[in-house]
Structure formats: structure tokens, C-alpha cells
Amino acid sequence: MKRSRIVRTQLLAALIAGTVTATLAMPTIALAQTANATLQGQAAPGAQITARNIATGQVRTAKANAQGRYILVSLPPGTWQVDAGPGTARTVTLSVASTATLNLAQAQAAAPPSSAQTLAAVQVVGTALLDVRSSQVGNTVSLRQINQLPEASRNFLEFADIVPGMIFTRNANGNTSLSSGAQASSNINVYIDGVGQKNYVLAGGITGQFASQGNPFPQLAVDQYKVITSNYTAEFGQLSSAAITAVTKSGTNEFHGDVFGSFTNTVMRAETPAERHAAKKTPSHEKDYGFDIGGPIIKDKAHFYLAYEGKEFDSPTVVVPGVSDYVQYLPPSVQALAGPASLPFKENDWFGKLDYEITDEDRLVLTGHYRSETAIGNVGGIQTASAGIDTINTDKRYDLSWEHSADAWFNKLLFTYENAFYAPTPIILGDGAQYVPNYNRNSVMLQTGASPLAQQNKGQKGPGFSDDLTFNDLHWHGDHELKLGVSYKSVKLIAQDAGDSNALFNYIVSTSGTEGIPYQVQFGSPTPGQSPVATSTDKQYGAYVQDNWTVNDHLTLNLGVRYDYEKTPSYLNFVTPANVVAAIYSQDPNAPAGQTYAETLAKGGINIADYIGNGHNR
């Protein structure tokens, strides 16, 4: 036993030395992803610490060391009853991603109700819990704020706007985005129950938030979340600005549910100027509705939770020619396409959760999220209804975690699967037209069809796993909460930027009318032998060490180091097509005879050979 403790101490010292060296030697942009709380403090030496979740009956235990110090890690946010023996029981409420201190003294008289305090990280009754171990900068958005603060949408990320430095925007089309400081929205990441929602193909930061009016997750299912803007730990990466770590609701030992709905329609809104001119309102409506329900399957052992939110819009818009003085020379059938129009949108968002306490030491949690939305866009202004684009946005995620706790360590093994796609498609497949005045071909009067670029399919799908191990009973010049983790993800990335089902013909309009022969046509034509869809299986590897080192009552060090590696075969193994290489080394028609494109580029200082892939030189 003594030999084991010596080896463990030597290993800890080596890890700390390596962590400090790496932290000083290199920058890190990794962020903490955990949504659970840590509770630590003092009790009688050797005392058994028992924490019981009031709502679910979940039990977690730890043992105080010879100095009386204890740590309970990865506690789900909620209200817990904690005791270290007779006369020491306390009831505390832990918030998301917090570290709180609770000293358990025997036979301490209960404080009067007037001494109850609400702090940034924890709400307590009788004992004030202070978070003095974390150097992270951020703020918590509570369930009370989510339920009571006004909002323009039911996107739960809108409440992050109350955190200094965070910016939530909703543009005129209803599309939403979240960013931190002056950085792009793509730099954030959102973790839901510890699982990152990162988008690897499109902008927006997380899947489903690119050019969308929809909500990334049912707001009813969010219990609370924390926004971390700086001073991050090393637990997870894939972002360089803010991290939003949210925890979802769970079923409890009592059945509980909610129902909500809101509705507006054509009668409840004012006319738009275009509708006033046409003396007719375009039918429209806005609906938000949903429900959630949770309860016990087996009291204190197994619970379920289910949430659904739906959203429907039919927003009015207007088609207006970009050049008004030649409208009368357009074909009558084209002129009739101007005027009021509508933009329908519909979203279904589901979330389900099952948890099962196998023993006091083992817990299984299975969650599923399914979101689908359809939206008609690209209508209004110079685009007629026939030029509209039907965008289908889907996001499916399934996560299974196994948590095992012991007196001196805690382990969480997580398996994930994601399938998220953004697929805009023209409403009408076939030929379309674009009309321009003869005096300015850069000004479009009306567009009656969609461009080949409107047909896209971009997304990601694949499995992943992570394992996070926490030691909470290590001592070397103080007390240590040491976290080690590894992760792996294999995600197939798919990107199609254009289709070959549409062609857009450009016609000149003059005082003589519309010419019958187009002067220009845009169409999709894949390179022979090449697929118009780019695919790649992205391999992502990660590892980290994080040490929260309490040197004494007045000094805590948060030390961490992280390593990430990503391999993208479609880039590393890319071979430039032979016909493209042949064209590069063919005659440049704008150069003297015998001078190739490659030689022309070389005169400008560009060696094109550096950009030709052979499958091994990247």
C-alpha cells in the first residue's frame, strides 16, 4: 500500500511538471465542456460523504481523507442533500459547470431563513457556498431567467445576450446567430450535456444555425446553461471564442409536464405597403407550440423525459422589379409575378432522455435529439415565387454515457452519433430566366428561376467516443482534482455546391420589348470523370490533462494542456485531375507561341507545380 502511494505521488508530480511546462510553452484555445458541478470541502477525517439528489434519488459518495478534505465530482445540477454523518446534513442547489465549497461540521445549528443567499454559482439554504477554485470568466443563465425574460424567438441561445461580450442577432429574415466579442459566430461551440454541437462544413458555429430561423434545441428541454468567455480549462476544444455548456432536464420521482402555445395571423397584423397598394393582404401566421413531460419509470432508479417544440411561419414579402422604368416591356406573364408573396417555414424539434441508476456507483444515460425544418426562401425583391428555394435542414444526434463513481475517482464513457444536413433545392427544377435592361446588364429587373448554385447538399455524419477520468483523492503539496481525457471522432463530411438540374437564361429588355434569344446562360456542368459532390472522412483525435491544484486555502492553480490532431484524407490524398494538369501546361492563348499557362504564372512568381497534388505531397 505504501509503495502504491509513492508511485501515485511520483506520477502526479511528473504530470504536474509536464502540465506546467506545456502550459507555459504553448497557447491553448480549448474550452471546458463539462455541464456538471463539483462539490468540495472539509469534514471529519475519514468520514463518508453522501450526496442524494432530492428530485431523482441519485446517490453519490466520497470519503474524506486524513486531513478531512473531500471532493464530489460530476454532480448533475440540481438540489442535493449532503451529509457526513449524524447532525451534518445540508441541502444545497448546484448550478451548471460550477465548483462549490461546503464544509460539513457536526451538530451545527441551522441558520435562520433570513440568511439564505443566492450566489452566482450556487443557491444554498443555511450555508454559503463560494466558488473559489475556477478562474473561468462567464455567467450562468438560470431556468428562472429562461422562463421569465422576454425574447423574440424561442432560441435558448438568445439569453446568452445578457452575458457581457456576447451578441445574439436576429435579422430581417428571422435568421439567428450568436457570437462573442468581435469574432465570427463560427468560433463558438455549444455543448449540450457535455457533447459538442460543432458544424464542420458550414458557418454558424453549431449544426443547424446556418441561415436558419429555427431553434437548435427545444428550449423547454434546457434546464440551465453557462457561458464561458475566457480563461478556459483544457477539457475540450474546437472553438476559439465562447463556450456555451448546457444541461438538459431529466425525469424525476414525480410526474411533471408543461404545455405552451402562441399564435398570430393575418388579422392580427398591419398591412405592408405592398399589400396596401394591392388592396389585399397576403395570408400569414406565426405559431409556436410545444410540450414536455417527465417522470419515474422506477422510483430512485430510472426516469424518462420527453420534449417537443414546433414552429410555423408564413411571413409576407413582396416581389419588386429592380429596375422600374422598363417593366412595361417585360412579357405580361412575367409582369404578373410582381407583388405580394409569402415565405412559409415549419420546424419540428424533439428531445428524449432515459436515465438508469444501475447501482449507487453506475449510471446510464441515453439521449436522442431530432430536428427537421423546411423553409421557402429566395423570394422577394427581384426574385419571384418561381425562383424560390426549399431548404431542408435536419439534425439527428444520439448519445449514450456510462458514469462510474468510486471514493477516489470518477469515469465517464460517452458514445455519440451525429447526422446533420443542410439541403437547399429549387422549388422548380428546370429553366429559369433573368431579365436585365439593355443600358445596364449589371441591374436585374426580375428573376423567375433559381440558379444552379441553389441546389446544394452539405452536412456531416458519423460516430465518436470520449472517456474522461477524474481522480479526486491525490495529494502532493496540496490537494488535486486531476482530470484526464481522450476523444476520437470519425465524421464523413459532404459538400455539394451546385446541381445540374437548373439553368438560368439572361434576357435583355429594351423599349422594343424582350429579346427572344438569351445573351447568357448559367448552368451546371460537372467536370467529366469528377463527382460534383466532395466527400471526406474526417478523423479527429484529442487528449488533455487538467489539474485543479489547491495549494492551500488561499491559492488554487488551474493547470491544463491539450493536444488535438485532425486528418482529412480528401485534402491529404488529393490528386489533381490529369486533364487539369494538361491544361495548365498547354499553350497560353494570350502569350507568345510556346508559352504555357504555367510559364505565364512563373513570370509572376508563382510555381504552379507547388499546387498540383499527387496524393502524397500535402
Structural write-up:
The chain has helices at residues 2-25, 143-148, 273-278, 332-335, 569-572, 578-584, 597-603, and strands at residues 37-42, 48-53, 59-63, 69-75, 78-83, 90-94, 99-101, 117-118, 122-124, 137-141, 166-170, 176-180, 189-192, 195-196, 222-230, 243-248, 256-265, 285-298, 302-319, 339-357, 362-377, 389-405, 409-426, 431-437, 446-447, 457-475, 479-496, 503-510, 513-514, 520-523, 533-552, 555-567. The chain is mostly beta strands and 618 residues long. The strands form six sheets. The protein has an eleven-stranded antiparallel β-sheet with strand order 17-18-19-20-21-22-23-26-27-31-32. Strands 3-2-5-6-9-8 form a six-stranded antiparallel β-sheet, with no helix packed on it. It is globular and about 100 Å long. The two termini are 52 Å apart.
